[in-house]
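Hey, resending since the last one bounced:
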Amino acid sequence: MFNNMRKKFHRTDKKVFITFIVLRILIIGTIVFQVLKGNYDNAILCIFTLLLFTVPTFLDKKLHIELPTTLEIIIYLFIYAHAILGEINRFYIIFPHWDLMLHTLNGFLCAGVGFSLINLLNNNITDINLSPIYVCLVAFCFSMTVGVVWEFFEYGHDRLLNGDMQKDEIVTKISSVTLDKNKENIPITIEDINKTIIEHNGKTTIIKDGYLDIGLNDTMEDLFVNLIGAIIFNIFGFFYIKRKDKGFATNFIPIIKRGN
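The structure tokens again:
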């Protein structure tokens, strides 16, 4: 029975199949649990997550692009870690560096996607012979563009839907030209902020131990670790092309299946 199920799956690799089935069962269980609790938004997020799990199958069957075992497993784990653990199980709140970890991994994976797209073109069209530096540059720019677009999405979500995807944090120092009463474009610095008092709708909210930064630090940290992830991948990608290295980088670079 196990082998028959694997044959229906787009890959016969046992590790990929087990990862896919285990995570899928966990997501279906989460859907049931969220519906019973009346959290229908979370249930919809779970269904969307299941749809994302079909992307590797689509790439394999429709585009004949085969993902290496390691890359495919990481993609499944990344999707699950973001949607199910991060959003539904509140890992973004419970673990302070969960967001940074996933953004680093996102930079790495997106660089891999960008690298693969341009490298597949480079290898399968005889009139094109791009240098390793150029391929890596395109991969890097692709990764950073995806990172920036995602931050646009987070900002739009927070601005239009009053969310908090760009996580706020308490800071004890601000510097702004808005505080310059003489309008001479000189930044005024306030240090050692003990508390902030906010008056709204006849109510008073006191923020202890500092000033509430509205997501700027979170955005810049996300982009910075995205950059780190992109650089790390492109180091491996460069040597993959330059030296035809068949080592570590082959675990993350998709290939076109011949004869399809």
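The chain has three domains: 1-95, 96-168+214-260, 176-208.

Sorry for the duplicate.
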